[in-house]
Every structure is written in structure tokens, then in C-alpha cells.
């Protein structure tokens, strides 16, 4: 197949998944070419090292000045970015449509998750959607469209009226964004997701069906190095509220001080204010918290081999590569049974699943592995065998290739009430 790729991905699990998808398809003799805007991360697992990658401009919105500009800025910022991304996608689609490609394999957008690229290409099109735009539909930590707190005699408070007006304008921008993301995802012939949990999320969010196409682990890179296991618990994931670092800190704090492990957290990026909050929390609870941001893959693998346990505490994570990467290094995982990790961690096989966010229970599971080295060793060995058997890159590419070939041969219509009744309107 001749496959066109589109993405606007940051560094992290999504980009790693795309890189291995591209590499695997190349190894099977397919021809691939990629398109992305300059806002995509092109240094982390660079596609340009293995295929041609076209960088198409994305014009950044200019803030409007004046009173009206200031009032409308929350709405206008969203609308301008939507228009800019749509123009970018139109240019990419023009080039793809002239390129004699068999299929489009689109990936997520770091701004809107779904982009307009599917609306403009005239070949069969598949999207691999790591997750919907959760910020629009989940409390992270609060739903963005909730009404302002009510107050008595609101009509007599100029400050409240101003806040009310600003909120109305901002929420209208959010509604426009949600509408456009829905139109964008409806344009694809097939939606692929990374877990059953994500499949349910797509159904809840967009009213559309999707198919699970599990990811695989590079077991040649993530492998045991036979390093001494230290009194370290490792976390892996971007340092922001969605990864639940406070849950991990509270759990570590329940372990007795004389054998309390350090918590090393590896992140591809860090939200500074959140990292500061976690550092302060750890200090108050006497937990040794050590953030490691933007370190090399070799350093990541070394730390996964030095740690005795991985702790996994994100909030409703759609799938999560990190636990399986740790498993491939023979490191057991203690995870909160929430989101997609319930599909990858088998309790007592490659780690332990805790059925609620109880810091004491999480801490007890970690302590059990720290104190019983024989148990930790056995689960670590089982974990790597489990990854090799169930989560290989080969299996992941087998499934992806099959879905792409099926979609190339036929157009898949995903019926939804929204597609029948909703007509696109101008922004």
C-alpha cells in the first residue's frame, strides 16, 4: 500500500506508537509519507529519519486588540486556531490527493485531538485516536462548561456580570470546538483506538463506533539489564494533573519511614506549577520525590531496571504504554484499576491492581514487592514473558495492517444520528 500519514503529536506515548506503526509498516514493504505542522514534535522518534516528512505551515492566530478583542478573546482564540488548522489540513489534503496514495492513516492533534484532514482527502481514511479531547468531557479537575457559582442579587454586581459575560463567551468557544471535533471524526471511514476503555470513551463522546487496535512494546529496547534493584519506585508519564502524581506520593507516604522508597518520576514534559505542588506535597509527607524530565530512552530503560516497582496512578488513562514497558524490563507494576490499565495488568501475573484509590492499599502492595524479593523476581519474570506473548510489536502491526487493507478495499460508513441531522454551519 501507499500510505499517507498525518499527525500533530507531541513527544510521548502517542508519538512512540506512531513511530513503531510506521517502522512496522515499512518493514512489510509498504510505502509511507508523512505530513504535519511545525507544532508537531519532530525530534522525538523522528519520522523524517525513516520516511519523507512534509512540514506544512500552520499560521498562528494573532490576538485582537481593543475592548471588543479583549472581550471576545477566549472565543476568538479557539475559532482562529480551528480555521488555521483547517487551512493547514486543506493544503496537506491537496498534496495527498495528488500523490496517488491508497489510504490516509491520520493520528491525533495536540490542539483538538481530531483534525479536519479527513474532510478533504478523497481516499479511504483511518484515524488512530489515542483518546477524545478529555478536557471537554471530563472533570480535569472540573468540567469547562459548568455554570459559574450562583450568588444572591447577581444583577447588582458589576464584577459578577462581567464574569458571567466572559464565561458565556468562553463556553461558546468550547461548544464550537466540540462541534468541529465531532465533524472531523465523522469524516473518517474507520476509527482505531488503543483499548476497550477507549472504545467506550469514543462511543460516549461522539456516538460513533470504533475498533480496538492494541499497541505493542519494543522488547529489544525495553529489556532486563540485570542491574541491582534499588529501594526505588518509578512513575512514568507527563507531569500534569491527569497523571495523578499526588496519588502516588500519598501511597508512598504510607510506607514506614525506615524502608520508604524514593519516588522517581520520569516525564516527557512537566507543567511547572503542578510539579511544584507535588514537590511541596512530597516534602510535607517526607517522601523523596525526584522528577526526571526529558531524559533519553537509555536513561528511562536504566531507571526501569533499577526500580523495584512501577507505580501507575493516572486518572482514567485510556491505555498506557508505561506499565508494559516496565514489565518488559522485568519490573512489576502496582496500578489503580482504572481506565485501560485493566486490560494490560493481570493481578498477580505482571503486577497488582488496586480496586480503589486507597493510599494504604497501594502502599501495602508496593511494600509486599519491596520486602519479598522472591515474589518481585517471580512477577518480573512473568511480566516479561507476558509482554513477549501478548504485547509484541509484530502482533500490533499485524492488526493495524489488516485494518488498513480492509479499509482500503471498502468504505466503512459509521451511522450516527448526528450525521443525519446535523449540518455544518459557519463558525
Structural class given helices, strands, pairing? alpha/beta
The side-by-side strand order for the widest beta sheet comes to 3-2-1-4-5-6-7
Shape: globular
Count of beta strands: 13
What is the arithmetic mean of pLDDT? Answer: 92
Major sheet: 7 strands, parallel
In oligomeric terms, what are we looking at?
Answer: single chain
- Per DSSP, the total helix count is 14
State the helical fraction: 40-55%
The termini sit apart by 37 Å
Low-confidence stretches: 412-426
The CATH topology label of the largest domain is: Rossmann fold
Determine and state the CATH class of the largest domain. Answer: Alpha Beta
| Estimated radius of gyration | 23 Å
Report the sheet-strand fraction: 5-15%
At CATH's second level, what is the architecture of the largest domain? 3-Layer(aba) Sandwich
SSE pattern, N- to C-terminal: EHEEHEHEHHEHEEHEHEHEHEEHHHH
CATH homologous superfamily descriptor of the largest domain: Glycogen Phosphorylase B
Question: How many separate domains?
Answer: 2
Amino acid at each position: 500500500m501507499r500510505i499517507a500519514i498525518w499527525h500533530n503529536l507531541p513527544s510521548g506515548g502517542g508519538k512512540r506508537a506512531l513511530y513503531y506503526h510506521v517502522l512496522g509498516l515499512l518493514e512489510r514493504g509498504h510505502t509511507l509519507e508523512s505530513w504535519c505542522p511545525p507544532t508537531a514534535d519532530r525530534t522525538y522518534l523522528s519520522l523524517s529519519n525513516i520516511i519523507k516528512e512534509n512540514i506544512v505551515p500552520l499560521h498562528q492566530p494573532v490576538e485582537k486588540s481593543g475592548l471588543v478583542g479583549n472581550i471576545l478573546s477566549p472565543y476568538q482564540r479557539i475559532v482562529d486556531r480551528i480555521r488555521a488548522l483547517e487551512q493547514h489540513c486543506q493544503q496537506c489534503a491537496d498534496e495527498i490527493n495528488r500523490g496517488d496514495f491508497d489510504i490516509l492513516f491520520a493520528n491525533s492533534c495536540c490542539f483538538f485531538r481530531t483534525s479536519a484532514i479527513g474532510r478533504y482527502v478523497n481516499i479511504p481514511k483511518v484515524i488512530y485516536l489515542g483518546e477524545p479531547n478529555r478536557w471537554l468531557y471530563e472533570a480535569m479537575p472540573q468540567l469547562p462548561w459548568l455554570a459559574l457559582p450562583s450568588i444572591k442579587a447577581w444583577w447588582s454586581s458589576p464584577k459578577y456580570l462581567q464574569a458571567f459575560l466572559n464565561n458565556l463567551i468562553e463556553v461558546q468557544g468550547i461548544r464550537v470546538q466540540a462541534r468541529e471535533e465531532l465533524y472531523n471524526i465523522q469524516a473518517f471511514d474507520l476509527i482505531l483506538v488503543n483499548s476497550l476503555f477507549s472504545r467506550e470513551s469514543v462511543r460516549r463522546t461522539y456516538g460513533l463506533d470504533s475498533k480496538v487496535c492494541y499497541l505493542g512494546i519494543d522488547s529489544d529496547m525495553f529489556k532486563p539489564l540485570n542491574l541491582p534493584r534499588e529501594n526505588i519506585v518509578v512513575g512514568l508519564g507527563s507531569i500534569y494533573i491527569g497523571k495523578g502524581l499526588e496519588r502516588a506520593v500519598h501511597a508512598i507516604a504510607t510506607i514506614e519511614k525506615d524502608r520508604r522508597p524514593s519516588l522517581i518520576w520520569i516525564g516527557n514534559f512537566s507543567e511547572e506549577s503542578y510539579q511544584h505542588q507535588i514537590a511541596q506535597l512530597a516534602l510535607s509527607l517526607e517522601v523523596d520525590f525526584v522528577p526526571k524530565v526529558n531524559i533519553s530512552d537509555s536513561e528511562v530503560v536504566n531507571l526501569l531496571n533499577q526500580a523495584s516497582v512501577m507505580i501507575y496512578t493516572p486518572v482514567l488513562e485510556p491505555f498506557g504504554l508505561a506499565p508494559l514497558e516496565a514489565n518488559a524490563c522485568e519490573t512489576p507494576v502496582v496500578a489503580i484499576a482504572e481506565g485501560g490499565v485493566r486490560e494490560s495488568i493481570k493481578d498477580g501475573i505482571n503486577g497488582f491492581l488496586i480496586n480503589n484509590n486507597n493510599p494504604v492499599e497501594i502502599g501495602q502492595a508496593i511494600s509486599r514487592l519491596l520486602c519479598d524479593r522472591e515474589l518481585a523476581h517471580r512477577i518480573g519474570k512473568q511480566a516479561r514473558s507476558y509482554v513477549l506473548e501478548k504485547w509484541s510489536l509484530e502482533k500490533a502491526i499485524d492488526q493495524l495492517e489488516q485494518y488498513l487493507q480492509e479499509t482500503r478495499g471498502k468504505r466503512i460508513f459509521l451511522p450516527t444520528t448526528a450525521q443525519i441531522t446535523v449540518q455544518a454551519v459557519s463558525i
